């Protein structure tokens, strides 16, 4: 028993939905494409799970988040896939892949063959057991990676209103879930081993702002320690969290957000792996020419940095999925994936965006006692990263553009003094062409003391600006707190 398709997308998250949309836009024929997913629903926007789905006033949760939304606002419902001749193979687990024979074997024993495979398997949540702690199967211990997790978390929250929750982890999931728990009238304590929240991205000064804001909402922080064990009642529910520093916290529920691991097991020994993911080239093509990888599972070359990166964020998933399909459908017209890394989050009434890389010297700017502030990162004399909290649509677009340009910075004190106005000026004023100095891959040279303002940018910079606009609109539209 088996089926054959020209194109197969393996995975059911954001990248899969955007790849399907791009295939449709480029005229894929009916019956040529299928999506295989372990989940029982069509691809959907996973960021909505932590940014809106958990909120008490969230509207009817099904099917609102069971869709993947394209730039043209087209909702990719199961009906949409059917109308466009795209087959959804849902609730189906693939247990083995043979890239040489171009086949996938499902748990039900069906063989599905392909000519081109797009791997969009994403990542799985790391479990406590991988760190020597048992208890993930307790009914009041929750993770958040997919819709099933989200529905379970909502049910547990509803049963714990007014109670106590411990959030294990201080990253994206920890911070966003903690905010949702507070809004659901649950007392929250966050526990993580680092000295600050969001340690992979935030500077200590930025982290301090968000921690103080959370404290004003009633959140407590226990930093510099980790979970040691759980105390259970006779029904198998967690009633207390024991920490390595000896503290014991009484709880009604626990949320665990301790990281993810890319789902590469099907392709180990068959494809080249790097940085935990599947290594791909500038067209998102793996070491096997018939296999492409996109989203969290893909390790791709980032031109801005001149090295391979694996980026765990929805924007990268959306853009690289579309780029991969363009490379498949029109290889002679598709160039390299010139992408400016972009991350964002929304918590309570706050909203921030980050572009580029957080390496080198940090220059903070703005009012950290207010709602609009940010930072630049300057490495080897060039601005390589920008962070902004509380910006406008135009301001987010400006920091996206300036980061993509990688301007030369000669005076950090002057950059600090100008702050956000520097990015705004660069984005607004066209320069005389003679003032632009080409320094190759490091980008145009912009000397701060005598600023010049480039009027043109690479495709990646234009793309980054559009990303900022979309994210700003999406955030305002989805914000409910």
UniProtKB/TrEMBL annotation:
Occurrences of domain FAD/NAD(P)-binding (ranges): 7-319
Domain Monodehydroascorbate reductase 3-like C-terminal: 340-423
InterPro entries recorded: FAD-oxidoreductase/Apoptosis, FAD/NAD-bd_sf, FAD/NAD-binding_dom, FAD/NAD-linked_Rdtase_dimer_sf, MDHAR3-like_C
Cofactor(s) demanded: FAD
Transmembrane segment boundaries: 453-475
Top-level class of the enzyme under EC nomenclature: oxidoreductase
One CC-aspect GO term: cytoplasm
Protein name: monodehydroascorbate reductase (NADH)
GO molecular function, one term: monodehydroascorbate reductase (NADH) activity
């Amino acid at each position: 028993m088996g089926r054959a398709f020209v194109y197969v997308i393996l995975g059911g998250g954001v990248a899969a939905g955007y790849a399907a949309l791009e295939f449709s836009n480029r005229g894929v024929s009916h019956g040529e494409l299928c999506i295989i997913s372990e989940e029982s629903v069509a691809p959907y926007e996973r960021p909505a799970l932590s940014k809106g789905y958990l909120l008490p006033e969230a509207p009817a949760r099904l099917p609102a988040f069971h869709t993947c939304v394209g730039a043209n606002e087209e909702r990719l419902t199961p009906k949409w896939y059917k109308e466009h001749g795209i087959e959804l193979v849902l609730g189906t687990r693939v247990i083995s892949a043979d890239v040489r024979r171009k086949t996938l074997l499902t748990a039900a024993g069906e063989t599905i063959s392909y000519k081109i495979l797009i791997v969009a398997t994403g990542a799985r949540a790391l479990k406590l057991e991988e760190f020597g702690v048992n208890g993930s199967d307790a009914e009041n211990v929750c993770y958040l990676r997919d819709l099933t997790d989200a529905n379970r978390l909502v049910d547990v929250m509803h049963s714990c209103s007014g109670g106590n929750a411990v959030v294990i982890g201080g990253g994206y999931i920890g911070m966003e879930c903690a905010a949702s728990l507070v809004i659901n009238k649950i007392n929250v304590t966050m526990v993580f081993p680092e000295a600050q929240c969001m340690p992979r991205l935030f500077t200590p000064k930025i982290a301090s702002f968000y921690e103080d804001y959370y404290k004003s909402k009633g959140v407590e922080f226990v930093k510099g320690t980790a979970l040691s064990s759980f105390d259970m009642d006779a029904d198998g529910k967690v009633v207390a969290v024991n920490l390595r520093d000896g503290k014991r916290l009484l709880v009604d529920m626990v949320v665990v957000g301790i990281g993810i691991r890319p789902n590469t097991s099907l392709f180990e020994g068959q494809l080249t792996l790097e940085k935990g993911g599947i290594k791909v080239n500038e067209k998102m093509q793996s070491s096997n020419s018939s296999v492409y990888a996109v989203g969290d599972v893909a390790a791709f070359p980032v031109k801005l940095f001149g090295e391979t990166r694996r980026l765990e964020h929805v924007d990268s998933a959306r853009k690289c999925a579309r780029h991969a399909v363009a490379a498949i459908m029109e290889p002679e017209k598709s160039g390299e994936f010139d992408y400016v890394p972009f991350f964002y989050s929304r918590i309570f009434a706050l909203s921030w965006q980050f572009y580029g890389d957080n390496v080198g010297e940090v220059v903070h700017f703005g009012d950290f006692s207010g709602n609009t502030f940010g930072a630049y990162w300057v490495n080897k004399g060039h601005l390589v990263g920008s962070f902004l909290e509380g910006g406008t649509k135009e301001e987010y677009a400006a920091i996206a553009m300036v980061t993509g340009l990688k301007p030369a910075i000669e005076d950090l004190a002057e950059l600090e003094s100008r702050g956000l106005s520097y990015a705004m000026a660069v984005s607004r004023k066209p320069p005389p062409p003679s003032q632009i100095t080409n320094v190759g891959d490091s980008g145009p040279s912009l000397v701060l003391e005598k600023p010049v303002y480039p009027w043109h940018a690479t495709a990646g910079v234009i793309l980054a600006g559009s990303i900022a606009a979309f994210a700003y609109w999406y955030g305002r539209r989805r914000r409910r707190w």
